[in-house]
Amino acid sequence: MSTFTTNTITGISRRTLFKTGAAAAFAATLVACAPTMSEPDVVDILASNDQFSTLVAAVGAAGLAETLKGDGPFTIFAPTNAAFAALPAGTVESLLLPENKDTLVSILTYHVVPDAVTSDQLAGQRLDVETVQGQTVHINATNGVRVNRANVTQADIIGSNGVIHRIDSVLLPK
User: What is the pLDDT of residues 72-124, one digit of tens each?
Assistant: First the structure.
């Protein structure tokens, strides 16, 4: 091969290498600057599921949404709409009134444990666990999982800042 041909091929190879390198660097920059798809937090998970719309409305009325969107970790025993509907007539509507905010906060924080606790950590145990509200809930995980008198009907809904366990009744502090 002549010197001209070798230099031309080498020049093309270098240009191609630089262009490829520049394109790769640009692509890496775009990926680094793009928003990352992170796992939703516990409030986002609850809000995305219609069976928790009453709970989400109560969390909003109590002013707890921002707290529960925080770092956590939290375990939330989440009553379904059917669980709230099973309360005496007018209870939910009354709790959502501004003058009953303290009572609502007390009830809702009684459903939250300040740690991420999954069902495998509870399996086979009976224990009392302190809630954010300050009182304890009794967990019996020897045959399924019960929290006080509520049954966990779906366990381990994992969020970026905690875990949710769906329950079939509302927990009421003593």
Answer: 999 999 999 999 999 999 999 999 999 999 999 999 999 999 999 999 999 99
- How far is the C-alpha of 116 from the C-alpha of 159, rounded, in Å? 10
* Domain 42-167: which CATH number of 1.20.120.450, 3.40.50.300, 3.40.50.1950, 2.30.180.10: 2.30.180.10
Instruction: Please give the average per-residue pLDDT across 44-62, as a whole number.
Output: 97
Nearest to 48 by CA among 73, 78, 91: 78
What are the start-end ranges of the H helices in 69-141? Answer: 81-85, 91-95, 101-109, 119-122
* Distance from C-alpha of 118 to C-alpha of 152, rounded to nearest angstrom: 12
Residue 53 to residue 49: CA distance in whole angstroms: 7
Cα 69 from Cα 171, distance rounded (Å):
21
Q: pTM for the full model?
A: 0.78
